[in-house]
Amino acid sequence: MNGTHAMLSHFPIGFWALATLMILVGSFMTGRLADISRAALLPVLVLSLLGALAAIAIGFIVWPMAANLASPLARNHILMAFWSLGIYSAITVLVWKAGDTAFDGARRWVLVILALTGSLMFASAGTLGGHLTGSTTAFSQVLSLMGWEVYTTFYSPLWVIAVMVLIGIALGVLGIMSQRRIG
Ligand code: HEM
Question: Is the CB of 129 within 6 Å of ligand 1?
Answer without folding.
Answer: yes
